[in-house]
Amino acid sequence: MTGNKKLQIWVKEWADICQPDSIHWCDGSDEENQKLLDLMVSSGAAVRLDEKKRPGSYYFQSDPSDVARVENRTFICSAKKSDAGPTNNWSDPQEMKKTLLPLYKGSMNGRIMYIIPFSMGPLGSKIAHIGIQITDSPYVVVNMRIMTRMGKAVLDILGNDDFVPCMHSVGAPLQPGEKDRKWPCAPIESKYISHFPETNEIWSYGSGYGGNALLGKKCFALRIASSMAHREGWLAEHMLIMGITNPGGVKKYFTAAFPSACGKTNLAMLIPSIPGWKVECVGDDIAWMKFGADGRLYAINPEAGFFGVAPGTSMKTNPNALLSCRENSIFTNTGLTPDGDIWWEGIGYDIPPGTITWTNEDYDPASGKPAAHPNARFTAPAKQCPTIDSDWENPAGVPISAILFGGRRPSTLPLVCQSFDWNHGVFMGSIAGSEVTAAAIGLKAGVRRDPFAMLPFCGYHMGDYFAHWVKIGENAPNKSKLPKIFNVNWFRKNPEGKFLWPGYGDNIRALKWIFERTEGADIARETAIGYVPGEGTIDISGLSEAAGNIPELLKVDKNEWIDELKLINDHYASFGDRLPEEMKEQLQGLTSRLENAR
Ligand code: TSX
Ligand code: MN
């Protein structure tokens, strides 16, 4: 247990409300983990995968209503509505608690209340923070054990210090004698993913799924942490962290933010196509960054695992991800093969006959229904990644040389573009987004803005968030040591709709240009939107077809950008008077540079 008074009182309060049958303090041991997994196998909640094919791994099927994050049930509860901003659902904190307390009342009847002490970041790191999650889901416990540093060692480090209290219940109490469901959860209208950034609290109710229930990840490491970082002067970002080593052995670290479905995990685990270059992975989803004593910006990965989208992951698209989940992993909503392995669409080989779908039916190609849910996930320990960086658990973090933004843009944005300075880079982040199809946004196809890829994850007003980024640049201990900021676009198409860039391992060619720019190489051409690669400065050695596309990939089309200006203006209008002056100046600057361009 613990001598921490706040923790003791907090657990007692919630036990009195939720009325579990018993309380279990998680120690994080192998024995505890195995007991929970065995329990779930015998209850029918989990399937143990074949010990030869997938050692130490387990398979779960969720309730069909509980397959993804629920953004319309996600709330930022601040005293003032304006502090949540236009991109968040808001509720008054007291009102939200009044709504939720009756739901939590008796919600753990017939269940065990688990207490999970966890650290986001290496144990004892100055950049790390400790949270305690209460949950009634053993599935959550075994996932949190992979995704965070979890267990008794965390309580020892916590001592009497403060922690982020993370409250979770699946919201499915059991009557005496009632048989549990395979995946207990509450109906969609009573799911609540609530954040109280002013008191650093999380109250999650009704869902057992990933981002709704593994509270260390999106809820703590992004929404609550972004608001802590805003108050305290650091950065909590939706970014991968990668190490890049050139053939001369010089190593640099980059972070990168992309909206969903841009292949962030694939980039984090990239295998370069140019000989002599090496990419290593520090993290694939979240970066916490602070200035170090030397004035550089240092990043840690607060997580200890990958919670990755399975469909589309193959030995072709991302061998390192597949190798990461070769053992000791959890699979949720994939297909299940008759020989006790998993399968998903895009895994790179045909579906074995007799495979069961994520809805527990026999797979039938004629039905048109996939074997794996499109949001099916693997949970895998980061240390199992073949290219995990040797410094991925360095408590001091890794020094960042470049920050990348990007999205899926079939036109307008070049393959790579460097900002003129910090604030221009903040501007690039603030207008990031992906083109989506008509169906996804209701009206016509267009760009869905996802500033800094933080749209669903910023715990406060997005305008204030932009201002925070500006302030980080202003207050930097040494402005010359700030990371350089870039925009990348792997998804530009020709007029016939064909991708101009091969992507994947060939992205190293853009990363190499960025690497050289961070060393001040004179390889850039100045345009109205920033510095783009000068002629012949993208390494095309060994690149066949796409080499001829380079001019089109690097083109900055004045007319496309004049159309883009209108879209940026509309986007910016949504932030009202909280849009920082510096960003208005950036937009004005871009407008006049385009007017003056030929
Ligand atoms: O992850 C991707 N990356 C980053 C890789 C490090 N994807 C997949 C996106 C969905 C998750 C990409 N898709 C990338 C990319 O760079 N590029 C593309 C588009 C693309 C797809 C196929 C081909 C070329 C480009 N070519 C052939 O299929 C032959
Ligand atoms: Mn993410």
**In terms of quaternary structure, what is this?**
single chain
Q: Tell how many strands the DSSP assignment holds.
A: 29
Small molecules in complex: ligand TSX, manganese (II) ion
Structural class: alpha/beta
Poorly predicted ranges: none
Shape: globular
Summed over residues and divided by their number, the pLDDT gives a mean of: 97
Rg calc = 24 Å
Termini Cα gap: 70 Å
Helix content: 25-40%
Q: Mind summarizing the main beta sheet?
A: 9 strands, mixed
How much of the sequence lies in strands comes to 15-25%
The count of helical stretches stands at 16
Concise summary:
This protein is α/β, with parallel strands linked by helices and 598 residues long. The protein is built from 16 helices and 29 strands.
Q: Could you explain how this protein is built, in words?
A:
This protein is 27% helix and 22% strand. It has 16 helices and 29 strands. The strands form 6 sheets. Strands 1, 4, 5, 6, 7, 8, 9, 10 and 11 form a 9-stranded mixed beta sheet that branches. The chain starts with a helix and ends with a helix. The site of manganese (II) ion (MN) has 2 residues, from loops. Manganese (II) ion (MN) binds at residues 238, 285.
